[in-house]
């Protein structure tokens, strides 16, 4: 991809953001103000040296002092006001870009999320807006100011003594080359450091999130060893990156304060001795040159930093440029599901997670999907809800190809209840209302009853208004599942997919909910990814998956004792799962301890 320059990047990052240009003009005005009042002291200094000191004209000392005081006053006003404007501008930009990113992220299709590893939207917006803000302040505002200031100083230097100026400009390319060289080395070290730190932070994050499991499994020492391993790898690279950055600082200090000054003293001295210049001119020149060279260094650093930062900046631009709503909204009327020759491979995997899957589920039917762990059951659920897009094949609901319509069209038709439901740190009521904003209390209570969670809610002090903590942490796994099933009942979609959504329930609760599901199923199409095979006996059809392929699709009666994979699943579960092994499925019952 072609690298974008600053202007192109600026346009891309400020597109459709109103009110930025006006603030930029106001800021530009006060920046020029500060620049002018930053230059005047140099002229006053020149006046002081040449007219007052060299010409021994003490009468002109007081105008110089008054001039200095006036400039100080105006410069302070300029700096204060431009600071206020730049803070306002940056804040305004930060809010607008966050808003734009939020709108973009919430309207993107599901498959974009996995493609761009968007993950946690909140932290993604934070880091993207930081990248954009940083570009705006350092690579636009500071850079432009630095360039304008350096050009103004270069012109003044040339006007002052063009011969010394031209000779001293030799340090400009040297500075650019050196900063470029050290910057390149530092960038490489920082790149390595970033990779190692990302791994370390991921490790730390998962450790903190799962600290209970770490403690329960007595893994503290092993985790500490791993932490030390991360440190050992990070340490040398960190030292290397620090070394280059300190070399840069030392180089800058040395050239600015020693080499360039020595050079100008020497060359200037020769000019003065030979009568081409005067001591006063030289002193003023050195003072101007110090500022000029400082700016040149800032510009070289900014060029390098822009190169380093552009990888992240372009990622943000790419996200902002992503086409939203490419697929149109279309009302899906029918409820039949028709799947033809579905193929899907996860990014980075060599083998298919699913291949050659074809099946149909008619309106009102209940399909169970069974198979060993990793056989592809959840992948089918993700494909049917449009969360991922297949590399081959087609899924039609009500005759409409679901990958040609937007996610809104699909979510009106299909709801999914998953093993680990998404619950928010809000009240039970608010979590339920996410499914249907205008649901009445009577509706909420009815659905909670059907999901066997209402008795529990009744025991809580604040009933439906109880806050359930982050990710529903104040609830048990089974309670979280029942709440999410209640949410699906409230949503009342025509197609409901249950992806191991009763796995954390005890048999009694599971049976209650299954009974509810059955009563609910009239006219609805249901797909259950079964956790316990005892729950699928009444399903109209059973799909048996093995290593991503569909090995059978029939009724339970037809599969039992006839399909090897299905039989094996049955046997394994009822022996390992604490059930008595039976000849006839009607006899399946949990093994009661002590019986
Ligand atoms: N996000 C992912 N990235 C890469 N590979 C994945 C991803 N999700 C699943 N897979 C792989 O795809 C295959 C099918 O996974 P899937 O989750 O559909 O299986 P499953 O039958 O639902 O398993 P389980 O019963 O354990 O939940 C597995 O081999 C799995 O490793």
From TrEMBL:
Among CDD domains, the record links this protein to: ABC_6TM_exporters
Q: How does it sit in the membrane?
A: Multi-pass membrane protein
What's an example of a GO molecular-function annotation for this chain? ABC-type transporter activity
Q: Which residues cross the membrane?
A: 24-45, 65-82, 140-158, 164-183, 262-289
Q: Name one Pfam family in it.
A: ABC_tran
PROSITE patterns, per the entry: ABC_TM1F, ABC_TRANSPORTER_1, ABC_TRANSPORTER_2
What are the record's GO terms for cellular component?
Answer: plasma membrane
Show where the ABC transporter domain sits: 337-572
Localization of this protein: Cell membrane
Note the InterPro entries from the entry.
Answer: AAA+_ATPase, ABC1_TM_dom, ABC1_TM_sf, ABC_transporter-like_ATP-bd, ABC_transporter-like_CS, P-loop_NTPase, Type_1_exporter
Q: Which UniProt keywords apply?
A: ATP-binding, Cell membrane, Membrane, Nucleotide-binding, Transmembrane, Transmembrane helix, Transport
Indicate whether Ribonucleoprotein appears among the record's keywords: no
Top-level taxonomic group: Bacteria
Segments forming domain ABC transmembrane type-1: 36-308
Is the keyword Transmembrane helix assigned to this protein?
A: yes
The protein's predominant localisation is: membrane
Q: What is this protein called?
A: ATP-binding cassette domain-containing protein
């Amino acid at each position: 991809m072609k690298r974008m320059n600053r202007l192109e990047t600026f346009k891309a990052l400020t597109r459709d953001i109103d009110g930025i240009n006006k603030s930029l003009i106001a800021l530009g005005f006060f920046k020029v103000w500060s620049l002018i009042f930053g230059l005047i002291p140099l002229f006053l200094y020149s006046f002081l040296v040449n007219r007052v000191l060299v010409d021994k004209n003490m009468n002109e000392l007081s105008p110089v002092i008054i001039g200095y005081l006036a400039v100080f006053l105006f410069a302070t006003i300029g700096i204060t006001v431009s600071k206020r404007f730049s803070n306002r501008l940056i804040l305004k930009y930060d809010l607008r870009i966050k808003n734009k990113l939020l709108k973009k992220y919430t309207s993107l299709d599901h498959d974009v999320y996995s493609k761009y590893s968007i993950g946690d939207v909140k932290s993604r917006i934070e880091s993207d807006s930081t990248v954009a803000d940083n570009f705006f302040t350092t690579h636009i505002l500071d850079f432009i100011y630095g360039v304008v200031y350096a050009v103004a100083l270069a012109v003044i230097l040339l006007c002052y003594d063009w011969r010394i100026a031209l000779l001293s400009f030799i340090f400009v390319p040297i500075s650019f080359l050196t900063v470029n060289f050290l910057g390149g080395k530092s960038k490489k070290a920082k790149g390595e450091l970033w990779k190692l730190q990302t791994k370390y932070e991921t490790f730390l994050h998962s450790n903190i999130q799962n600290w209970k499991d770490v403690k329960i499994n007595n893994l503290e020492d092993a985790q500490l060893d791993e932490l030390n391993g991360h440190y050992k790898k990070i340490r040398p690279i960190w030292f290397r990156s620090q070394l280059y950055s300190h070399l840069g600082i030392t180089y800058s200090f040395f050239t600015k304060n020693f080499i360039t000054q020595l050079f100008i003293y020497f060359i200037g001295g020769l000019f003065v001795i030979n009568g081409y210049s005067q001591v006063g001119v030289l002193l003023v020149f050195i003072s101007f040159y110090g500022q000029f060279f400082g700016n040149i260094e800032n510009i070289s650093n900014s060029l390098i930093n822009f190169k380093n930062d552009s990888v992240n900046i372009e990622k943000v631009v790419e996200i902002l440029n992503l086409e939203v709503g490419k697929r149109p909204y279309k009302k899906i009327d029918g409820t039949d599901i028709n799947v033809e020759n579905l193929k899907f491979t996860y990014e980075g995997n060599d083998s298919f997670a699913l291949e050659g899957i074809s099946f149909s589920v008619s309106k009102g039917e209940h399909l169970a999907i069974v198979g060993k762990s990793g056989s592809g059951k959840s992948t089918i659920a993700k494909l049917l809800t449009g969360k991922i897009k297949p590399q081959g094949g087609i899924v039609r609901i009500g005759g409409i190809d679901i990958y040609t319509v937007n996610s809104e069209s699909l979510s009106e038709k299909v709801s999914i209840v998953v093993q680990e439901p998404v619950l928010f740190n809000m009240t039970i009521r608010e979590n339920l209302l996410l499914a249907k904003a205008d649901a009445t209390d009577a509706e909420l209570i009815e659905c909670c009853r059907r999901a066997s969670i209402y008795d529990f809610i009744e025991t809580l002090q604040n009933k439906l208004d109880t806050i359930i903590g982050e990710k529903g942490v104040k609830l048990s796994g089974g309670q979280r599942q029942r709440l999410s099933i209640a949410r699906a009942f409230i949503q009342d979609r025509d197609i409901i997919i249950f992806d191991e959504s009763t796995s954390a329930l005890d048999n009694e609760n599971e049976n209650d909910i299954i009974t509810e599901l059955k009563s609910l199923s009239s006219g609805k199409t249901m797909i259950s990814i079964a956790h316990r095979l005892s729950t699928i006996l009444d399903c109209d059809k059973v799909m048996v998956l093995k290593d991503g392929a569909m090995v059978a699709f029939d009724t339970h009666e037809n599969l039992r004792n006839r399909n090897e994979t299905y039989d094996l699943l049955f046997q394994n579960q009822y022996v390992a799962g604490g059930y008595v092994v039976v000849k006839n499925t009607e006899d399946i019952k949990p093994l009661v301890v002590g019986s």
